[in-house]
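Task card 7
Instruction: Convert sequence to structure tokens.
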Amino acid sequence: MNFNELAKKIIQEVGGAKNIEQVWNCTTRLRFNLIDHSVVDDEKVQAIDGVLGTQDKKNQYQIIIGTDVAEVYKEVEKLLGDHAPQEPVKKSKKGVNPFSEVLEVISGIFTPILPAIIGAGMMKCILTVLSLAKLVTPESGVYNVFFMISDAAFYFLPFLIAVSASRKFKVNEYIGLSAAGVLLYPTLINGAAEGLAPMKFFGLSIPYLSYSSSVVPIILTIWLMSYIYHFADKHIPNVFRFILTPVLTLIVTIPIALIVLAPLGNYIGTYLSMGLDWLFSTAGPVAGFVLSCFNPLLVMTGMHFAIMPIAIQNLAITGYDNFWLPFCLISNIAQAGAIFAVFMKTKNKEQKSIAVSTGISALFGITEPGMFGVTFKLKKPFYAAMLAGGIGGLIGVLLGVKTYSFSAPNILVLPTYIAPDGNTQSLIAIIIALAVSFVLSFGFTMFLKFDPLEGTQPADKKAKSEGPVEVGDTVIGTQGISEEVASPLRGELLDIQQVPDKTFSDEIVGKGVAIEPTEGKLYAPFDGEIALVFRTKHAIAFKSLNGLELLVHIGIDTVELDGDGFTMLKEAGDPIKKGELVMEFDLAGLREAGYQTITPIVITNYAEFQEINKNSFDHPVNEDSILLQVSN
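Output:
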């Protein structure tokens, strides 16, 4: 994969560099803060080779790449560095949901610091294994060095958050670090340890609290700092700005933070942890089932980043997390079970390769490629994994599952479930829960009936062929014919390469043909159903009774019309009969408006068939003409 070319296409389709306010990546996604979401052509983004899917959360546009996301991000960063926006457009706040905005802010702050946190968590895992194996002792220098490596990122977490939050709120990072330094200053740390009475600041009390490993206090502090910093930077004359902006920012922010915001953040974290303890002590099995069952939906929407700080705060206050990390791991392993079951059921070599690679990724904590490429695509395996994960979560709670370090939820971090005193109860609990979720997910998926990825059909639904079948200029051998695709339009049949859009002409979206229509009527190409009608009505996806998926995209760039000139006679989900009229469109109006009306007709699940045969080109066709014929 050419990461540079992929990055160029992504930047182009999200509106160019001038439309990008901020971009960062997590383990599988590029995450954009865009100035104007309306200029993004989501269809074209999803059609880019290398893009697995997209999510638009109003003020955060997510492009799912998979395990290569870090490489793509590097190229995006290089390109944006070379083409930084000069005159950004005014950002529209219309329709922004405050809750979504909070989630986006949390995601933007925590995603960049994940490598440090996960690295420290894995170091704790290694140290636990070495200690249990008696290879190191707490008195040894090796143990102490390894412990410092594993603990530093958590103890000094406010410093990491200060840098990331400063970037997010557009504050000078070094001023943000100074604020974190105040929160971790020995005067406060030692005073908290000794239980001293609050110090006085102009008659106001500043409590001695330990803010090491804390999350909320520094975020609230940098949030307040951003307002003061920008106000000062705007109103102080240029000649004094370099000197006065930093000092005014700190002298106003820090006292307010120490008196109000930091203690408030500390109490929020403490009472949240107490609330979670109460939840799991009163309704633990139900909570475990719900968290493990619905975690895939949180991951797909990116909302799991809102939960991550709670897990970190839990670890800082109680020394363990029994709220999110264990159930995320159980959920991931359930997804792996369903993916490997699909691997066993599918017969197509390409799809087997996809299933096994994404299944292994899921075992190691990266589930999006498997969800978007396998389980969610097939639906039933996704539901099977959710149910199995929920049952595994319920069992985990009943057995008292806890993790004692923050780490990426994958099978390599099982030692983090061993208590600091060597107690292995939680390790046994997580192993049993993982085994149950994997086996049930695998078994449910093997038992369920669903359209297999390679598109093979039950024998009684397959057309039979005693000998060679002639289709235009192409002859198909003696294999059974799975499907015939009739022309959905009346017009001139053309080669797909004549479409002036590389997404279709290079057959990135799917394999097929094109038609230059002579009338504005769209007919059903086979018996089946209308799988999807795009909001702008310019494109319709059909699905046959045998599972063939066909996309008809009327004209080029007609999405810009926002549905004007298109009249649906059928709706998504309606059954269809071959040759039935499903839509009318203003062909003359499209051409008068300057749009090209050449229409791509492509099989989007082409990889599920062994042969796709096209009719000869450059001749008239109608709703009775056979354009494509596929076989297994």
